[in-house]
């Protein structure tokens, strides 16, 4: 308790030598103070060291102790027991014996007392047991002595004759006094050990008089005016421990039972309460001592003795004024013990006593001081709060709550459940306690009391029912919690964080409690708890998985109630009814309930709408609804039921409003729909629609295929349910759409509803056929488009009409898409194919579409992509190639890249529009030269008719070579971008929109390539994607777009399991593409110009540091540009190499003639000529090796040409580089197996002469670098090994001739000698 520790070197006697009675202290004062030695000796003998001695006297006393110990050790050899009389005060150290020679009392070893102060509990217990055993033995023998006076006279041991313990042996009287003094020591565990040592003798030895012992405790540990604060504290704590030992001994109860008129209990109560009244820190332990004693007492003794103690009555009277929580705790425990009202309780307890009266507003105001003053014992929680917790949350309420939630999961059962008086009283109690004490007293006070509020809640949590959470997590408490958590350097931040951790742990396995906590936190923070506290508390709670449908439904009901009822979230489900199964939806009769006044028009919503905070809370509710399904572990049927409830709520709140009131009852649906009294803002309505789109999109992704596989109909899938629900609400007279639509949008909505109905019938008629998936995907797209019209009126009506037309025209043949039905021939114009119109419609929807709608578009395209025409594919890839006009300063630096890269991969059908576009942008006409050389790359693409006026047109809307109708359908958004580009200086907005549009179209192309890997149109897609990839503007506009294109080419084209095998792609086209790829692979890297302005002329007065900074920025910018250019060059080179392998793979899949194969070989011959004759060629020899390894027939046909070019290479280092290519070709040309050895030998002989010329050229012009020389020797060694294995050593030596052999011997050494030796 904060007392000063004594040194471990103190002896057991020093523990008892803390205090003396007042009489001895008076004698001590009368002595001569100068006689210090005598004073020190007296202190040693009597053990009565005054607490007022200064440090010098203490040192002298310790020195005297050491001298006494030395003398005692010298006398250890003598076996005579020491005789102690009343005149000699000296006490021996080892043991105590009787003075009379006739006495046979056993010795009392003093080491028992030393062990009682040990920090080891087992040592203390053993010492106490040994001590009481020895004292029992001594007392028995003492009682048998005939002459007790002689023993008493010889061994007084500091005991006085009038201490009331005359019947006790001197040893026992000494032990009692020493034990009493020991409980006042703060050394180690002295108080615990000596208290235990005092308890046992009192409880076992009946000779000890309790009244005398209590007087001895008071006298021995009395407080004098000369004592300092620490000594006073030790005396008071010693008395408290002594009283505790006395209470635990049980002697008080035994004495009362033997004499019920005894006043010992009353005196004990007075003594304990009197002690508690002295100091605040004594109140709590004193009450615990008294409560422990009262628990063992009969109720009769409590009423007649404890309650009648004068000190107790006085203490209770002052409790409410001074704020005494311990008095309140004692009063509650005593009332629980006697179970009757008693006037001694005064104002502490109400009359009559009940939990309802105790927690009433009036009584809480009376005992408020007692409750809030319990903060003094922090960080420990006062014992009073455990009692109050049990009163607030009795077991009957907790059990009733569990039974209620177990048996009343449905709303109907909850409404019909009768109220329980116990529950009502407990609810009122917790509400009053939270409002009056928690909020009114603690949360508005100091940090310590706020800390106590958190501690009280943590104490309540384990037993707190879910229905009480809303009262405990009140508005003020949540606001306080938010304020603390928002400031990390707050003193209470750790306390609040710990509370949140415990709160989340409390609700993790209980959906009901989790929902209650989420609602309380969000309601009282206006939906901004996580934002204010910088945590993810609500997010993590809402993201936890719901194990049961009841938990999901409960969360959903609370969210809906929170959205509709702005004032209060009721405990039970509101009277809003959201049944799962609607009745027929043909017509409806309704009733409108006007709770307030007419709700007003939708145009007035934003002006008279809710506050920003309310909108934030409602927006959180809307965003949380779809997450319920995401984090729910439910079977498909249960998830569908929950999904329908969410769908209807979002539809009602987002799409409709009641014209005359806030509630509308639909008799047909047997439901009551409710809107907030304050009009919902347009922004919230749009958010509801967006979440509705997301809900339908998720249902499409997570649809259960079991019912379809089993051949079962799905009339109640989310789309059908939504469309019918929408139609039914539209027929209610008092319900209208949240916004008015123009004529075109109204017509489009009706068409889409009719289209969905037809599609639903067709889907059911198709059964398990593949067309059922097409119809199902279309139905989802129709629903998404309908919501998009309501979300963005005036933008999608035309697309909706076109989609309806596509669906109508496709019904006649179950979506076997007709090319033309002849209806458009009246105007001598060919009507576009339905599939082309569908593709155009999908493309026109992509720019403005939301993520759920894009998902539906991709699903539709997935099921229809096999029917996409060539024209449809070209329209998609042209979007990827589309580019805004580059800025004038970019044309010069990019024109060469466009010439060398992009046009290498240009295709014929793009020639006209490319010429036109380049003419508009100022590009050189020479950029189209390479495209002219690729005539017939994709012949099937030429079938599209090019408008005659395309060459003369300057309109961007016609530069793709399409007719007006097609351009209007597909490229409306692009035309809008170009127009915006002209009107803006930088065009950054238009560029970012175009990039976004391209990314969305790329998703469709990826689906097309995945579903049609062997389609000839894959080549068309590849050429256009590759051309877009090498276009410098692609990398400049978006790295994401560049990586996306590259990823699609790599994964969906080059690494596809199938390749285009259609013979319509001519070989000359493939050969031309192969040639362009090899040129691109050999293209050298050109450093990128920085494009920054030259440094300005020197100006006087300019800060040099600014110049250095500007130069650093220029240099850094230049390095970034160089790095980007190098990365782009590596990517293009990689593209060319992979494309080469892919084209060769296509060629190998065909049966080609010798003439056709010769065209392919000519391409590689030209590539080898460029490699050996120029330094600019960046062709990687590893790439050529890989080609020869994969296509041995190319290597074999070109081997002789390779030897010639290597021998006559104009660039010397190329000859050495090509050696690996030659040895690789030799390995495949002349395999070392016995079956083909003759053929290999014959083939080798044909090239032996050229091979010898190459060897002579190599040894005659050995490179200077050691690594290159080693490479020559290694390659020659491989050649010699192959020649030797084919027994052609003689022929090779003959071809080398004498001069060649002479040149080889010094250069090749042992390798050549081994070849010559193999000849023999």
From TrEMBL:
Spell out the molecular function terms from Gene Ontology. Answer: DNA binding
Q: Which GO terms describe its biological process?
A: regulation of DNA-templated transcription
Segments of skewed composition (Low complexity):
38-52, 93-102
Which key words are in the record?
Answer: Nucleus
The reply on keyword Transmembrane is no
Pfam families (alphabetical) = DNA_pol_phi
Name of the molecule in the record: DNA polymerase V
Question: What organism is this sequence from?
Answer: Arabis alpina
């Amino acid at each position: 308790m904060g007392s000063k520790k004594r040194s471990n070197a103190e002896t057991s006697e020093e523990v008892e030598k803390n205090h003396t009675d007042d009489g001895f202290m008076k004698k001590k004062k009368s002595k001569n103070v100068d006689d210090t030695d005598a004073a020190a000796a007296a202190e040693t003998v009597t053990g009565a060291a005054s607490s007022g001695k200064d440090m010098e006297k203490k040192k002298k006393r310790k020195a005297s102790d050491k001298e006494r110990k030395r003398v005692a050790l010298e006398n250890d050899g003598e076996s005579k027991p020491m005789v102690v009389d009343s005149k000699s005060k000296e006490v021996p150290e080892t043991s105590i014996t009787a003075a009379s020679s006739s006495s046979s009392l056993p010795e009392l070893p003093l080491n028992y007392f030393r062990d009682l102060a040990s920090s080891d509990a087992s040592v203390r217990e053993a010492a106490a047991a040994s001590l009481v055993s020895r004292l029992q033995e001594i007392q028995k023998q003492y009682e048998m002595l005939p002459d007790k006076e002689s023993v008493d006279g010889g061994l007084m041991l500091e005991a006085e004759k009038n201490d009331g313990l005359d019947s006790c042996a001197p040893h026992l009287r000494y032990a009692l006094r020493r034990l009493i003094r020991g409980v006042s020591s703060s050394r180690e565990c002295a108080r615990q050990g000596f208290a235990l040592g005092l308890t046992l003798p009192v409880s076992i030895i009946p000779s000890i008089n309790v009244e005398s012992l209590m007087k001895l405790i008071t006298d021995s540990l009395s407080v004098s005016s000369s004592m300092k604060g620490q000594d006073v504290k030790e005396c008071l704590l010693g008395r408290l421990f002594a009283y505790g030992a006395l209470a635990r001994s049980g002697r008080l109860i035994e004495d009362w039972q033997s004499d019920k008129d005894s006043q010992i209990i009353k005196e004990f109560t007075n003594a304990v309460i009197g002690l508690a009244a002295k100091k605040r820190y004594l109140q709590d332990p004193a009450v615990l001592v008294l409560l422990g004693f009262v628990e063992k007492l009969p109720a009769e003794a409590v009423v007649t003795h404890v309650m009648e103690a004068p000190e107790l009555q006085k203490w209770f009277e002052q409790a409410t004024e001074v704020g005494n929580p311990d008095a309140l705790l004692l009063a509650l425990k005593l009332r629980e013990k006697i179970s009757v009202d008693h006037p001694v309780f005064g104002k502490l307890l109400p009359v009559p006593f009940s939990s309802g009266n105790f927690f009433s507003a009036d009584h809480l105001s009376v005992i408020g001081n007692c409750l809030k003053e319990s903060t003094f014992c922090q960080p420990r929680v006062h014992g009073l709060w455990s009692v109050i917790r049990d009163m607030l949350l009795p077991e009957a309420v907790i059990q009733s709550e569990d039974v209620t939630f177990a048996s009343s999961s449905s709303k109907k059962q909850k409404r019909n459940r009768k109220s329980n008086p116990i529950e009502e009283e407990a609810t009122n109690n917790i509400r009053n306690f939270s409002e009056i004490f928690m909020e009114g007293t603690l949360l508005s006070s100091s940090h310590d009391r706020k800390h106590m509020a958190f501690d009280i809640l943590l104490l309540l949590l384990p037993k707190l029912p879910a229905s009480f959470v809303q009262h405990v997590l009140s508005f003020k408490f949540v606001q306080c919690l938010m304020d603390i958590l928002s400031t990390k350097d707050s003193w209470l931040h750790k306390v609040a964080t710990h509370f949140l951790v415990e709160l989340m742990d409390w609700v993790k396995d209980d959906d009901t409690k989790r929902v209650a906590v989420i609602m309380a936190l969000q309601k009282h923070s206006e939906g901004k708890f996580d934002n204010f506290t910088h945590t993810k508390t609500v997010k993590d709670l809402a993201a936890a998985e719901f194990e049961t449908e009841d938990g999901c439904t409960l969360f959903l009901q609370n969210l809906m109630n929170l959205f509709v009822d702005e004032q209060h979230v009721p405990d039970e489900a509101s009277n809003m009814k959201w049944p799962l199964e609607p009745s027929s939806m043909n017509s409806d009769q309704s009733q409108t309930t006007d709770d307030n006044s007419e709700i007003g028009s939708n145009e007035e919503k934003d002006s008279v709408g809710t506050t920003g905070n309310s909108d934030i809370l409602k927006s959180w509710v809307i965003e949380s609804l779809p997450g319920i399904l995401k984090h729910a572990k439910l079977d498909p049927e249960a998830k569908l039921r929950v999904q329908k409830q969410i769908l209807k709520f979002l539809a009602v709140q987002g799409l409709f409003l009641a014209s005359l009131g806030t509630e509308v009852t639909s008799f047909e649906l047997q439901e009551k729909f409710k809107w907030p009294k304050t009009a919902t803002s347009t922004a919230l309505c749009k958010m509801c629609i967006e979440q509705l789109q997301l809900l339908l999109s998720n249902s499409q992704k997570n649809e259960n295929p079991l019912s379809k596989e089993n051949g079962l109909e799905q009339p109640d899938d989310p789309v059908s349910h939504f469309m019918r629900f929408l139609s039914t609400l539209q027929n209610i007279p008092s319900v209208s759409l949240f916004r008015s639509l123009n004529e075109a949008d109204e017509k489009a909505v009706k068409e889409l509803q009719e289209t969905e109905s037809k599609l639903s019938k067709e889907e059911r008629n198709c059964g398990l056929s593949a067309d059922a998936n097409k119809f199902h995907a279309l139905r989802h797209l129709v629903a998404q488009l309908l919501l998009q019209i309501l979300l963005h009126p005036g933008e999608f009506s035309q697309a909706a009409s076109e989609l309806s037309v596509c669906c109508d025209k496709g019904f006649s043949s179950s979506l076997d898409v007709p090319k033309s039905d002849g209806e458009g021939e009246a105007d001598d114009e060919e009507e576009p194919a339905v599939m082309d119109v569908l593709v155009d419609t999908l493309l026109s929807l992509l720019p403005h579409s939301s993520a759920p709608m894009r998902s539906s578009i991709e699903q539709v395209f997935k099921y229809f992509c096999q029917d996409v025409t060539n024209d449809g594919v070209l329209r998609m890839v042209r979007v990827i190639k589309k580019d805004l006009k580059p800025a004038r300063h970019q044309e010069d630096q990019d024109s060469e890249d466009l010439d060398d890269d992009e046009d290498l991969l240009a295709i014929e059908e793009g020639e006209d529009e490319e010429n036109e576009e380049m003419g508009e942008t100022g590009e050189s006409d020479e950029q189209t030269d390479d495209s002219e050389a690729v005539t017939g790359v994709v012949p099937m693409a030429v079938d599209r008719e090019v408008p005659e006026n395309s060459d003369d047109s300057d309109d961007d809307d016609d530069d793709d070579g399409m007719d007006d109708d097609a351009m209007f359908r597909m490229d409306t958004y692009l035309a809008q971008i170009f127009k915006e580009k002209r009107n803006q200086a930088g065009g950054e907005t238009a560029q970012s929109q175009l990039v976004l549009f391209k990314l969305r179209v790329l998703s469709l192309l990826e689906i097309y390539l995945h579903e049609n890997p062997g389609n000839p149109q894959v080549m068309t897609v590849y050429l256009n994607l590759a051309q877009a990839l090498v276009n410098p503007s692609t990398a400049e506009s978006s790295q994401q777009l560049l990586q996306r294109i590259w990823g699609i080419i790599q994964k969906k084209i080059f690494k596809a399991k199938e390749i285009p095998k259609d013979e319509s792609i001519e070989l000359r086209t493939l050969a031309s593409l192969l040639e362009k790829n090899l040129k691109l692979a050999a293209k050298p890297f050109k450093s990128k110009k920085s494009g920054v302005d030259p440094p300005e002329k020197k100006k006087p007065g300019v800060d040099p540091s600014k110049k250095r900074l500007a130069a650093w920025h220029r240099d850094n910018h230049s390095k970034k540009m160089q790095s980007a250019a190098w990365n782009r060059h590596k990517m293009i080179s990689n593209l060319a190499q992979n494309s080469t392998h892919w084209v060769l793979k296509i060629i190998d899949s065909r049966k080609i003639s010798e003439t056709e194969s010769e065209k392919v070989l000519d391409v590689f011959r030209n590539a080898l000529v460029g490699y050996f004759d120029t330094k600019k060629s960046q062709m990687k020899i590893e790439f050529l090796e890989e080609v020869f390894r994969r296509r041995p027939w190319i290597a074999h046909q070109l081997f002789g040409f390779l030897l010639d070019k290597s021998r006559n290479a104009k660039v010397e280092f190329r000859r050495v580089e090509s050696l690996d290519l030659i040895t690789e070709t030799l390995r495949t040309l002349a395999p070392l197996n016995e079956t083909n050895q003759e053929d290999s030998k014959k083939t080798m002989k044909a090239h032996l002469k050229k091979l010898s010329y190459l060897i002579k050229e190599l040894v005659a012009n050995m490179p200077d670098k050691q690594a290159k020389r080693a490479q020559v020797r290694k390659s020659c060694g491989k050649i010699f090994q192959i020649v030797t294995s084919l027994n052609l050593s003689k022929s090779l030596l003959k071809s080398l001739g004498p001069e060649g052999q002479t040149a080889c011997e010094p250069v090749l050494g042992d390798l050549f000698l081994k070849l010559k030796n193999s000849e023999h």
